[in-house]
Fold these 4 entries.
Entry 1:
Amino acid sequence: MAMIKTPVKGMPEQLPADMEIREYALGLIKDTYGRFGFNLIETPVIEHIENLTNKQGGENESLIFKILKRGEKLKESESNDELCDSGLRYDLTVPLSRFFVNNMNILPYPFKAMQLGSSFRADKPQKGRFRQFTQCDIDIIGDGSNLAEIELISATAEMLHRLGMGNFKIRVNDRRILKAMSAACGFPAEKFDEICIVLDKLDKIGVDGIAELLRKMELGEDGIGRYCAMLADGTDYKMCKGFTAKHIGESLDAAIADNMDTIISCVRAIVEGRGEIVFDPSLVRGMGYYTGPIFEIELVDKKNYSFSIAGGGRYDEMIGKFSDGKIQAPACGFSIGFERIVTILKDKGLKVERKGESVAYLLRPGLEADRIREVIVEVNKLRDEGNRVLISPKAKNIKAQIEKLEEYGYTRIVKVEE
């Protein structure tokens, strides 16, 4: 049976030119986040299946790549539910929470973590979206104040600016405001998660489409009308209080709106001239573990198309789930869509500048040993000086060989004939 030369569907492989761009972007990301005091860590790509299926990951839990038990344990499994004991992580937040509880005695507190690694989702592949993809996360564990949100958003905005991503819009909301909106319309509390799923479709189906879906949930017509009026009022409020005062009133704790506006005003002072930050009452975020402020960054190019490139929020209850509630620690995080960033950089035609010179030495086949030794000494001296130097036999089709080398950035070709 012939072996298959193409990769598994949705699993990307990177050419040398792609890796140059990826490594450039990763280096800049690490440098930027490092300047904000985030510490680089690494967690395993394989996680306990119990941690991945705890009803915190939203729709991602249906996209888990599950891993079968091994050896005798697999033979002893009596049902399909017992066949798997682990899976490939679908994000970096759940592994980070476990990591923190497991290592908290030797970590600083609050702890500012940075992770860059692969995650896996059995999703439908498309441009810029793969089943294996790199995530770049920053999280702050142990800070319950809005300073955590301000730092996370500011660091990510600075990183996008340094990558040359262009104009961006930061959208912020709070899960508690979403609940207050639902309650103000008389919707049952037990319907909240289902309502959020509907609301998340606003940009695709519009306010009328939202109303139709809410009717299918058999919610009251008066409540649907009030809810849709909130959405029709707009999603780009400069501050939060204007919206909450108009549509929610005193049923919302004033401290929640105050907290939101503090985050907005502080970030706005930092990103002014590079992008904008707005309060968006329709912002949902799909993860079930968010408990407070949530945020997304949307890129907008000169052609006026837009898409989300980063998202995150506060998840204060996650840490406690790894200790039966004995350990409580506030937590907040932000994740960027690294694959989309790489796609944009490639579309922009980014050429990574190399330090030093790129030289290729092409040696005539059959060259004498003494001459080869001289060339190797010369080549290594150039390498010691910080240059990139390739040494290779000269091909029969020298023209094609040189064209390919030039395509890969070699600016000087040295032919060694004797």
Entry 2:
Amino acid sequence: MKIVLAFDSFKGCLSSREIIQIASTAIKKIIPQATICGFIIADGGEGTIDALVAAWQGKIICEAFHNLEGLSQPAKLGFSSELCILECAQTLGLTLSTRNNVELKTSRGLAEQIKFALDLGYREFVIGLGGSGTNDAGLGMLEELGYCFRDLVGKPVAGLLKNIAQIVQIDAHKVDPRLSETQFTILSDVTNPLCGINGASFVYGPQKGVRDEQVAEFDRGLFNFSQVSADFAGFNAANLAGAGAAGGLGYAFLQFLNTQLVSGVEYLLNALQIDTAIQAADLVFTGEGQSDAQTAQGKVALGVAIRAKLYNKPVLLISGALRPEAYQLHQHGIDFITSIQDYPAQLEQVMQAEVAAKLLGQRIEESLRLLLIGRSLSNKVSEHS
């Protein structure tokens, strides 16, 4: 039996690479002769660097940059040929910060990484936008790249969300000239615009710590900034699909830099050339930390299922947790859905790496036992038909 493993990470718990190791061990216990093809995979969030570096046989280096609270911390950069691979989660990651004082969070660290790679001679970037903890429309990033924001009297305004309503003018005289010859591909499956009830503040702000009474205020700030930016640039990217990604960071790229936005899942799956392995497989396993309504909006599991169904391959989804709406994924090509949790437990306990690893291995084993029972029954039916 040939089995493909295409799991996203269980964020904050198990990496995609660790899941492949755990699942492979479990599979071999039940089907020793199985041929296993495992893919380190991501959707543009955490794990994007690892996935693309593994696919392209590149390299990873680690340097210190500022996180969204302005504190220096180690962060990874990936390199392959003439391409630099970054992910927002490394410097702007929501898991690296508290959810307090969102108006003070900065996207500066991502620009520091960009400048670091520019210094090394790189002019082509792939950047995963997933997992960010900012809602600043990329002000911190843009300021670090040389853009200056000014108020009514021409005084410079720090690039922070708390100051966004004061910005009435943008000065580009000190923008890094290397950006004019640099191309960015940003990875996101978020299609939200920058502003409005479907925008960055209303939809994603609360999960980043934006309080209910701040949502409308911040949304107005983003809208005002987009108007100032439109006057500056001569066009407005605020309503483009994906402008609301990563707290408006998608907008900053689309509005101010040479950028194309593409589906993170599709980009990764194509880079991994996963279709070849799926076409030759008998069975496909996928999963993620939590499967819910967002899974069907462009997460790894959905992308894998769509590819598998092109070749009529069965797809088993095993996730860390399931929301009730996860079972609607049967309509999108996922044949079997289950979670690693099989007894009442505290989330903090299940998210301990050793606990999650044990539960995942057990669930893989039991899923395969059920699969073998089904195959045996199918053979008996065929014999009597």
Entry 3:
Amino acid sequence: MRTFQEIKDNYRFTEAEVETLRGLLPVVEPHADRLVSDFYHLFQQMPDAAKFLQDEARLARLTEMHRAWLLTLFQGSFDERYYLRLQRIGHTHVRIGLSAHFVYVGMNFLRLRLQKIIDTEVEPKLRELSLRAMEKILDLNLDVIARTYHEEEMRRVFLSYRLDNALIRFAHRFTFGLNMLLLVGLIALSLGVVAVLAHDISLIFRGNPEKGLVSALGSLLILWLMIELLDAEIDRLQGGGFQLSLFVGVALVAFIRKVLVASLAHESLQVEILYLAGIFILGAIYWLVSRTETRKV
């Protein structure tokens, strides 16, 4: 953060200009009450600013404080205490929620009125120097007061950015952990399907070939589906797209396996027709979804 001395140096604010401002105090002071009154009358015509001026006691207090600030422009004590006072003014505006727009409007109003006073009441040979000194001290005040708005906004944005960034990082890590958990789960399920397939094949050699062949066929379908799910999940972790057709395929294979098991259990004709209808419907959905995904690619 810049010191007030650095700010004054950057504006080339000289001692001669400080003395000029002190010389303007007797010229401006008789107009101070009128200036402040017109200043607040201007803001009372603006709804967004007028809401801060509805309380009469508050308006009287602000009028007194604003008059004191106006006169300090021409009293010459432009030290660190003056700098801190300007910062407090800026922070007060930020705290109550007054837009920085009205700070610029107010400074423009005062600039024009002070220019008029100097043009009419200061002798011509001192007029140019007086105008330049007045312009600089208003710019210095506007610089410090407006910068508090900028610093407060940056502080809020920075805190929001840090919070948002932390949440996003956590969400990424949490999602990655869930994906790893899903991958491990798919691997475990695939191993389970392999164990079921081995058991079904063993039935062939234990004197029950019919049941073993049909059950093994159903297990092979599920194993094929698990392989597809694993491939799809690995592809997605590497940046691939989500494949809805695989989930429809899970339901389709489950129905097909159910039909195979039902044929061994000698289910009723109505149940088998229901299973076949389910296969037909899921098959149609699978075809439509797969066709849509192919078109997108």
Entry 4:
Amino acid sequence: MKTVKYETSAGALVALLDTRSFAFADLYTITLAGGGTSLRFTTADTDIGYGGDVWTHAGPLIDQKSSRATAHWKIGLDTDTWQFTVAPRAVDPISGAAYPDKIGSVPWLAALQGGALDGAVVLVDRAFVAAWPDFPRSPVVAPTGVVNIFTGRVATVDLGRTTAVISVNSHLELLDQQMPINVYQAGCRHTLFDAGCQLAASSFAVSGTAAAGSMPRVIVSNIGAPSGSGTFTLGSLVMTSGLNAGFARSIRSWSPSTGGASGSIILLSAFPYAVAAGDTFTAYPGCDKQLATCGLFGNTANFGGQPYIPPPETAT
């Protein structure tokens, strides 16, 4: 059996499965690129919650009975796949509101067309209960145990008129990169703010507000220069309000404000939705991986010019 992710007490899930009398539902956790927003849905007809999180049944229909999720597992290094159907509601049957299922403030299908799930991470867990409670049910049902069924990144999204079919590849696809584990080069092999760099991104974050004239790929703002490298070029920008709240993009170049003229941040790829004046964001500095730049951050002790040698394994 898979490793238990959660259970009410040690051995509770195994004891339940041994009874051969139980019910289960799948829990879908979709974390958007940049890690800013997580969407949680369940295939059950009631909300399920544990660990402080709740998976709602009131959102779009996930994994319908007529089109059950399909998966492919194979022994070896081949990429595993998971495919499921999402059917957002066109009208809320109670309030009558149109397109009640949204990602942020944008209807699901429109958001998918704009690339909202590009690079998103999907976790599919299975929650087990002894039996579903009778109606009326409690607002949130607590499972006896939960196991992870599949984890991966969104590969493709096929849109229809009323549904979308989402295909997810396991993280084994990362092994498709033809590259050795260590790359010898003049520049630092670490990524700014990663475990090897050891700097904290929060220490260098700068908040800003988009000004008039901003576009999905160009953010006009008088944001001040960051500490560290002193430039946002090669850094990243995360929107914290507006239609793009929770989305992150890499920064291609930055022009600071001079002579009364507003500065601008040009992104490597555009946000999926329009950026309005007043939308807020958080920007992080960039690093060109040179030793001199590492010195600006005061971090030359962690400059990754040498290959990483893992520590020896400890005998158990």
